[in-house]
Design goal:
Elements: E1 13-15, H1 18-21, E2 34-36, E3 52-60, E4 63-71, H2 77-96, E5 104-114, E6 118-129, E7 132-143, E8 148-150, H3 159-176, H4 186-192, H5 228-237, E9 246-248, E10 254-258, E11 272-276, H6 278-281, H7 287-298, E12 323-329, H8 336-345, E13 351-354, H9 356-359, H10 363-371, E14 375-378, H11 391-409, H12 425-430, E15 435-436, E16 440-441, H13 444-447, H14 450-460, E17 466-470, H15 474-489, E18 493-494, H16 497-500, E19 511-512
Parallel strand pairs: 4-5, 12-13, 12-17, 12-18, 13-14, 15-19, 16-17
Antiparallel strand pairs: 1-2, 3-4, 5-6, 6-7, 7-8, 9-10, 10-11
The protein binds nickel (II) ion.
Amino acid sequence: MVPLVAVTSLRRKLSVSAAVGLFLVPGCHAVEQELPYAEPVRSSPEHLAGMEARTVSVTADDSVVSYRYPRLGGGHPLTVEVRTAMAARQTAFLEELSGDGTPELHQDTAILAASPEVVGARLTATASSDGNETFEASTLWYDADSGEVLPWTSLFRDEEAIEQLHLTLAGVLEKDYNLPEQQLPGLLGEVASGERTASEGGASGDGSGGGTGGEADEGSASLDLSDPEQAREAAERWRGSPLGDVAFSTAGGLAVRMDPDEVPGAGRLSEVLVPVEAADVEELLSELGYQARNAALNGGGLPDDEGGLSAQGHTLDCRRLKCVALTFDDGPGEHTDQLLDSLAEYDAHATFYVLGSLVREFPEPLERMAEEGHELGNHTWKHGDLAQMSADEVRKDIERTNEAVREVTGSVPPTIRPPYGSLNGTVRRAVDQPLVLWDVDTLDWKSRDTDEVSAQALDNTVPGSVVLFHDIHETSVKAVPDVLAGLHRQGYHFVTVTDIFGYQEMEPGGVYTDAQLS
Ligand code: NI
């Protein structure tokens, strides 16, 4: 295990040169003074043994979006949380686009701490649109003990400790960075001037600067930060705090990132890393905070969660996202490869309901589907009408098809789509897999018209939809690039059937048409 500290490269201290000194308040004698900078412990996910990172990047006509997230086993809570947060940010970005130029959103993850007890991740988002660039950063902390992914507030003992840290930060900025109290930004200024205290709970959110904060409303009691829900509530209360982008420093204290324009005296262009000394943090951390600091400074591996890196699992929480499941029936066929190329451009994952009798004829596309994260579904051996069969015939047909897919991909299809959507009680009782129908029918087998097929999909899809296509028709496969471009532009994420239903229990013999939440 490489200690995290070894891969950070920022210098701890910066001697103020004459050029930087120009930014200092005129008349200040401290031109030769060393500004105290913190060196944060931050690491690229790839640099950690046992951790992989995955980058998703989509370049469309009118936008570029990308994100990189760490993978700790297929369905690890931290992976799901990071990826879901980034996917939601991407949707918001695409929904807000004005349409001029080529706006870009780039999201990234750095690891702030990693040990068997805790993993800290820093999420950053850089958006550029119409010549404006914005930057956001936040942190998430996985607590192996509870299995919860927690906000930054969980690192601290209580809200009083958070208030104390704001005062300490304000002190460093005033004393070392020559920032007068009245110029302290946002929450720091409010806390320093006594406008806002932990006992008041700082109940006013970001942007409601008009209030004096003296009004106590509900939730003004100090929150218990060891409780995940209350820690999340506290993160809302303290929204806009510089501690929202906190890391541990190599010196064992904190490195708090601030914007250069908030701290002009620092003479920095990208970020100002304000230090809080280890001694000033000592009494203020929670148990998780101490574990996280220890993990940042000493490393020591990763949580020993079941699953492991190769485990398949849901990595997007579609309950909180704009998801759609594209499904392709009756193949594989001669156009399937072309379809897979289109899907790859949008990092789209689809579900293929294949016929067992075709699997041996087209094994390569099946291998490619499995390799590229698509899902295989059972569409019977030869497109038989299951409702016309006896229970025994149903079982034999489904089993034979399951086995054909398993021989090629190594795993049994998790769901069944009955041909013609035809099913009855006998079918439901005979099968061991859930039965999946659809809510959007492109009627592609009937129209055989590319524009008509994409219009059907684009006009009728809503979050949670399961859309039916047939990849044996060239007209359908040719419609897919337009469908992907249009739905991506609307902020959709393309997931498999078990991903879209993933957080509801799917039952053997249960019938599912869509995952619409409202
Ligand atoms: Ni079919």
